[in-house]
Amino acid sequence: MIRNASRQFVVEKPLVVGALVTITMTGVLLITSLSRTISSSSFTYMYTNNGGSNTATQTQFLAIIHYATSKDIPELTHPEIRSAFDVLINLAPCNFLVFGLGHDSFMWAALNPRGTTLFLEEDPTLVHKILVRAPALRIHTVTYPTQLYEAEHLMTSYKSEKTCVPPNVHLKGNSMCKLALSDMPDDVYNREWDVILIDGPRGYHAEAPGRMGAIFSAAVMARTRKNGGVTHVFLHDADRKVEKMYADEFLCKKFMVKATGRLRHFAIPPAANVSKVGRGSRYC
């Protein structure tokens, strides 16, 4: 709801002081809540170690200022944010790939100090708006080759294209597989991503790109991982029909760690570490 801009409000000094105290206390409570499970040694290293650039510290300060002065509310709930936070705090600094850009982008970058956090966004206007506020954020504007109304057809037809299925599946340059995000910046392909958050692109009307390609490509990135360990994939809006269908097909119920609200957390091992049942042309 937008209030009438012409209304005038007289704010007394005691109210200003009260508002500042409220903001400060809210920030303290949020930090306390999010940091209960952090060991003192990991917290000290992540937030006070001065090795390398001070960009991480600047990003954290920008995040504090942004959320202390903004009326915008992130779409994820506190329990959903906490689910991803618990993983990031154990892995940071790590490689963190985020599909989508929004009011919570400052927060995600701040929660991965000295790590690489990269955002992929389809809307160039939104990219410009965010970069004006936080030029240090790493953001690429990308184009998706799909539309939401194609979701069911792509699900039934992808197996007939050999570059969409193991062992021939790959992403970069794979224009034959419409689900593969084949024309991303090299910045995306040149890293192995420890954590992937899928909260974009748009998936709420028929002509929107949908998240089919993002979910499929996250699964391929996880399967082709060469370094040890799993890839943590978080999918938001997992209660929607298309997201649920593609998560079941490519991210796999057996790899799901937890469901929190509309967020699903998957821990996907490299294909080489999956049992024989999950090999061959199958993802799950």
TrEMBL record:
Transmembrane stretches, start-end:
15-34
> What GO terms fall under cellular component here?
Golgi membrane
Q: Where does the protein end up?
A: Golgi apparatus membrane
Q: Keyword set for this entry?
A: Golgi apparatus, Membrane, Transmembrane, Transmembrane helix
Query: Would the keyword Membrane turn up in this protein's UniProt record?
Result: yes
* Top-level taxon of origin: Eukaryota
Q: Return the InterPro entries for the record.
A: IRX15/GXM/AGM (IPR006514)
Write down the membrane topology: Single-pass membrane protein
| Any single biological process term in GO | xylan biosynthetic process
Question: Where is the major localization of this protein?
Answer: Golgi
Indicate what this protein is called per its UniProt record: Polysaccharide biosynthesis domain-containing protein
Species assigned in the record: Acer negundo (Box elder)
